[in-house]
Amino acid sequence: MPNTYFEARQWAFSYLSEADVNLILMTQHKWSYSQLILHLRDTMPDFEDFKTAVLRVRAGEPVQYVLGEAQFFGRTFMVDERVLIPRLETEELIELILNDSPITIQNVLDIGTGSGAIAVTLKSERPAWEITASDISAAALAVAQQNAANNDVKLEFIASDVFTNITESYDIIVSNPPYIAASETDIMDQNVLDYEPHLALFADNDGLAIYQAIARQLASYLAPNGRAYFEIGLHQGPAVAELMQQSLPQAQVDIIKDLSNHDRMIRVFNKQEKEL
Ligand SMILES: C[S@@+](CC[C@H](N)C(=O)[O-])C[C@H]1O[C@@H](n2cnc3c(N)ncnc32)[C@H](O)[C@@H]1O
């Protein structure tokens, strides 16, 4: 059995990447990377916990579920199999919204909030905004509520199938809905398929069903001069842009690329003609 953190790390390197090994040690001990390095020669009293985590990740479980948390936009989110693990691409959606919008009060709706990653982050970055987090999954909403509490922010929570239980209109509507088509199952990572909630991943109609449901009613819920933002799959830009343009013919609709130069976001600006 390894005696020190250094030896335990060497043992684990034969199973996992250095990044995952370090992440497990740092999370289990609440250490920064430099604290990990400082402790490497110390005797390790808790090898069994570390070993269990390493072997679970080795067996295919996402490291964030094993650790019970994920990092998103510099904050810690509790995650488990009730919610999607927040992705780096979604941080770009946050950047886009923050760069576009004033810091003054905005009424915001996050559709399909999952872990609450988007809603909690926007509220943390823009405390004046009033943010409603909604999801069709009561189990996901429970995780989002926990993450709001853990990050000391107050949100409104509504269980809703898209707009079904939504009554207000919003200055900003954001959604990272499920957008994977059933036909894409073959090219997906096995650990995503095995562990992440399929309700958060897959949508009917080639992955477009939730965008279609949103587009059907967007005109009733997006305030004049409001903006809607959607994360999309990399081949969905033209189709989602067309759906939104049909829904709001006067709106300016942009397809926006991510840092990897893939179509990744749609922005809908519900601009209103100035009255003469
Ligand atoms: C891709 S996950 C996004 C989670 C989180 N917003 C994020 O960006 O990490 C999609 C979320 O949409 C929810 N969802 C699926 N169908 C829905 C529907 N018809 N109405 C509302 N939410 C839905 C799922 O439960 C899941 O939490």
Automatic annotation (TrEMBL):
<dbReference type="Pfam" id="PF17827">
    <property type="entry name" value="PrmC_N"/>
</dbReference>
<feature type="binding site">
    <location>
        <position position="135"/>
    </location>
    <ligand>
        <name>S-adenosyl-L-methionine</name>
    </ligand>
</feature>
<feature type="domain" description="Methyltransferase small">
    <location>
        <begin position="100"/>
        <end position="186"/>
    </location>
</feature>
<dbReference type="GO" id="GO:0032259">
    <property type="term" value="P:methylation"/>
</dbReference>
<feature type="binding site">
    <location>
        <position position="176"/>
    </location>
    <ligand>
        <name>S-adenosyl-L-methionine</name>
    </ligand>
</feature>
<comment type="similarity">
    <text>Belongs to the protein N5-glutamine methyltransferase family. PrmC subfamily.</text>
</comment>
<feature type="binding site">
    <location>
        <begin position="112"/>
        <end position="116"/>
    </location>
    <ligand>
        <name>S-adenosyl-L-methionine</name>
    </ligand>
</feature>
<feature type="domain" description="Release factor glutamine methyltransferase N-terminal">
    <location>
        <begin position="7"/>
        <end position="68"/>
    </location>
</feature>
<dbReference type="InterPro" id="IPR040758">
    <property type="entry name" value="PrmC_N"/>
</dbReference>
<feature type="binding site">
    <location>
        <begin position="176"/>
        <end position="179"/>
    </location>
    <ligand>
        <name>substrate</name>
    </ligand>
</feature>
<dbReference type="InterPro" id="IPR050320">
    <property type="entry name" value="N5-glutamine_MTase"/>
</dbReference>
<dbReference type="InterPro" id="IPR019874">
    <property type="entry name" value="RF_methyltr_PrmC"/>
</dbReference>
<protein>
    <recommendedName>
        <fullName>Release factor glutamine methyltransferase</fullName>
        <ecNumber>2.1.1.297</ecNumber>
    </recommendedName>
</protein>
<dbReference type="InterPro" id="IPR029063">
    <property type="entry name" value="SAM-dependent_MTases_sf"/>
</dbReference>
<dbReference type="InterPro" id="IPR004556">
    <property type="entry name" value="HemK-like"/>
</dbReference>
<keyword id="KW-0808">Transferase</keyword>
<keyword id="KW-0949">S-adenosyl-L-methionine</keyword>
<dbReference type="Pfam" id="PF05175">
    <property type="entry name" value="MTS"/>
</dbReference>
<keyword id="KW-0489">Methyltransferase</keyword>
<dbReference type="GO" id="GO:0102559">
    <property type="term" value="F:peptide chain release factor N(5)-glutamine methyltransferase activity"/>
</dbReference>
<comment type="function">
    <text>Methylates the class 1 translation termination release factors RF1/PrfA and RF2/PrfB on the glutamine residue of the universally conserved GGQ motif.</text>
</comment>
<dbReference type="InterPro" id="IPR002052">
    <property type="entry name" value="DNA_methylase_N6_adenine_CS"/>
</dbReference>
<dbReference type="InterPro" id="IPR007848">
    <property type="entry name" value="Small_mtfrase_dom"/>
</dbReference>
